Amino acid sequence: MTRVRLLVFNPALPVLDYRLPAGMATEFGQLVIAPLGPRQVLGIVWEPDRLPGDEVPEAKLRPILEKLPVPPLSAPLRRLIEWCADYYVAPMNAVARMALGSMAALRGGGTTTEYRLSGEEPKRLTPQRAAAMDALHGEQASIRELAHIAGVSDGVLRGMVSAGILEPVTVDLDRPYPRARPDHAVPQLSEAQAAAASRFVAAVRDEKFAPFLLDGVTGSGKTECYFEAVAEALRLGRQVLVLLPEIALTENFLRRFEARFGVPPVLWHSSLKQSERRRAWRAIVSGEAQVVVGARSALFMPYKRLGLIVIDEAHEVSFKQDDGVRYNARDVAVIRARFEAVPVILASATPALESLQLAEAGVYEKIDLPSRFGGATLPEISIVDLRQEVPERGRWLAPRLIDELRERLARGEQSLLFLNRRGYAPLTLCRHCGYRFQCPNCSAWLVEHRLSRRLACHHCGHETPPPEACPECHTPDCLVACGPGVERIADEVAEVLPEARVAVVTSDTLNSPEKISAFVEAAEEKLIDVIVGTQIVTKGYHFPDLTLVGVVDADLGLEGGDLRAAERTYQQVAQVAGRAGRGEKPGEVLIQTRHPDAPVIAALAAGDRDAFYAAEAEGRKDAGAPPFGRWAAIIVSSEDEAEARDAARAIGGAAPNLPDVMVLGPAPAPLSLLRGRYRYRLLINARRSAKLQDAIRAWLDPLQFPQGVRVSVDIDPYSFV
């Protein structure tokens, strides 16, 4: 082979032909460096028949410059990249880039230099250096990463290196990870757990594609079941991928993994420092990384000997990527397992309706764990009708819930209050003129955070300190908070139970592995009486002395036009309810609502999940919604509103007239301004038989738009904002 076709990482020219210089041999999947004009580009050698492009005459072909010292991407991974690009109507090079996790790792291992505090106490410190020293205790990373942590410039830290305040440390990028031991601490399983585990172990031994839905109630021991499959894969010398929906769940999982296998797994997520990403990627490619635990991006890593995939909390919406390549890691994981010919386990106490339908159709093998491990019982659920049991003026907790909190405190037990709303209040306004604080970059209100003394946008990250006076009428001390967030609920608990130790648990307060670990340790040692948290506390945590869960506002998730609103509400409330009574002591759940007759609330109260899912499925079927129909969205955005509107209208005007496809819009998106860009949206509803992706490509490919316009396609959308 002297002519090679490359998939290159240039959006304008994704496919280019080159020739191999004399003496250079290569194979499909090889990563190479090639010339492009005066520059050099990274490319992947691809099968020409699978990557259409214009044939270039032999005489015009330029030679490949070099092969990179990493193994080629395997055929199953290349097929996954092709499938993902086709299904999600995404550029193939954008999908392939996700497999390259660490660009620095492509050049090989070796060493790098990181920096840490030397322990030297300088005689004189500038305010910036003093702040940096306070922020960098226990940290070791590159200058750029430390500057980000400390909130100072690179120059400040380089000055600290020169002054001896920071010292260099040489880090081996290819130092081996400790080996997991499959027989380190084999657990005693219940009969149901043992039956499930043996089925998974057999599937790992078979080395064939086998999709499972592990449907077990909260506290039933699902993790211990699939850990036995992990152990078998380790015995066979195969790699394992475990996907978690959020980094916040990682700390608890790591503890359980290390207790079972003697060492922590290899981590992969966006918060890893650069040297750890290089080390992890190279260990994955070489096969040295035995078990990889990570967020959705870990799915595309180039594993050498993959033997098992596990998706924990498989119902979670955070497995869906909302920008770039808008893929759903839960679904793509099943496809990867099929291409790799390995088993895949979807584990959840509240599976997605799509997963349940696939199990019912026989596509997934369903494994049930209907009861909690060790004789623990599911908590008793009661409804607090806020129309009848009205909270005191200015408060948000009903008298019955306050009484139960007081009783648990007296008994030395823990309680959890759940409200899926960060900050102190969702809206801040001027009591004098009614002025509302809105984000300058988004069509969203700024949320007050009293703990950090800021007004923040939860969409773009814009922050500003609360002003002393109203910007509109200039009246001082006139701001009023409207509605509750978790911080406000925590203040209310502190008022009614002043002796209680209260912890606010959100993505703002648990924003690092260290803080997560400190929270878990404090809760386990009973240094916390009442946890007030968002959805981050609804899953993965096990506190034996937590016996009361209060859902502050169960109706919150039912607001808006989300077709999955009822399902999400059921999943969130059921998951948070599952935190209660996981030890020997029985648990109780109080759900505050103004709509006790709503089907989802009634189902939660009755503990009748099957009836809820059956009714939800019937409603989806009538509406042609997933899993019985298809949805897609086309999102058009620009910094110029007129430009975005005109582009959206052009797309709407060219909409295909197909019998099994219905196009709605264009219309302004519910969040019509996001990060400084105006947004319009078209929704497409299609029958399952429709070739939706082909129709969208044929529709959009001929259209031309101004340079400032972005058009993105979202297949199977989860977000409708």
Description:
With 721 residues, the chain is of the alpha/beta class. The chain folds into 5 domains: 3-70, no CATH class; 111-172; 191-374, Rossmann fold (3-Layer(aba) Sandwich); 376-421 and 484-617, 3-Layer(aba) Sandwich (Rossmann fold), CATH 3.40.50.300; 629-715, Ribosomal protein S10 (Alpha-Beta Plaits). The strands form 7 sheets. It has a 7-stranded parallel sheet, with helices on both faces. It has a 6-stranded parallel sheet with strand order 15-25-24-16-23-22, sandwiched between helices. The mean pLDDT is 90.
Task: Name the features.
721 residues; alpha/beta; Rossmann fold; 5 domains; seven-stranded parallel sheet; six-stranded parallel sheet; 29 strands; 23% strand
